[in-house]
Amino acid sequence: MNRHPLIAADRPEARALDPGYLCDHLPAFPALKGRVERLDAVSSWIKPGRYFNVAFEARDSQGELAGRVAVGVLNDELRRKIANYTDQPCTEGPDCARCAFSLIGEGLFAQVFPFDLRLKALPSVARRPSRLRLEGNRVRSLHLQAWRPGMRCSFRAKLGNGTRAYVKVSALRDLESAFDRARRVYDAVEAAGSLRVPRPIACDAKAQTMIYAACPGVKLGDGEAAEAARLAARALVAFQALDPVGIARVHTPADELLLIATWTEYLERLEHEAADEISARLDELRRAMPSTSAVPSLVHRDFYDGQLLADGDRVVVLDLDTSCRGDRELDVGNYLAHRALRAFEHGDTAFEAGLAGPFYEAVADGIDGAAARWYLGSSLLRLASMYALRPDGAEVWQPCLREAARL
Q1: Number of folded domains that form the chain
Q2: What is the pTM of this model?
Q3: pLDDT-based confidence at 138, cuts 50/70/90?
Q4: Among positive and negative, which fits the CA dihedral 151, 96, 76, 389?
């Protein structure tokens, strides 16, 4: 992978996506095992106008893992955080900025896991998990699941009594509110008995940490496609039928458009090839925007196959902290857009997105077809915007954009 071909070459974002440039400029971090000869992109976290972070696996000349490195674009908030670290003495530990952090090149910084400028608690959680206590039990072991630099890091945990759990270190400012939403949804699910969701165990805002009980199950997408789609539909219908107490925030079509608009403006600043067409599709969505349902339903807001596990004939729904009220069609459109995304990721770039197939047939009762089509188009446009900046997104954003335009 070379410098992103669709971003203006003088932008720091282009350099953050160029492993060759980064390898030439990375210092000899004490926190890494050996000299870095290769960087393999793993994930990214981009919040338009605020954060641009790319996570890499750093490998030595033998291809062995030397550590995990995140590269980000500097902004005013991060410069203030850096200033808080630079006066600290070297501790030669995982939270030592002098050992695991450096400015590199022009307008970029690099940090070695588990050091994270925005996840100050991460080194302590990752290196000293026994300090965490869950329901009276110490954490016996932690295994990294995913690190999205500056946003969140999740671990699989095993407690002293053998119980399994998930630990999330998050930079969310309203961590306690997100945890409270998850707890309220869990209570409603338990009362209804139609689904399973992870049980919220504990939240420590000071330590930036949320902990959930692990749920048994296998990825829904691992089963037969039609049956998996029907199970997903059944889970969505059951989820949207819940009425948890205390969840009042409403996500409207205007909110959906605002998310895409922030991406469009960012792509324009980067002089990205996709900016003009995404902007044109956004204008079309504005003209066709549906009105919000008179009685908004409970919605997940990130409902797709990756958030679902199958446990026998029951479905486990994950990541409840984005739950709010809104149009039922929002979750329907998002699921169908991700169905198209999966096809594109597997090379089926001719796949046509639409309101068809076993999933839509099973949820169609009471769904406004025009609104579902609008949310499908908005979800595809949002995915096209996001993948246009991902290291591995070249084969995905173009068909997403094509299908958004076709709808």
Answers
A1: 3
A2: 0.91
A3: confident
A4: negative
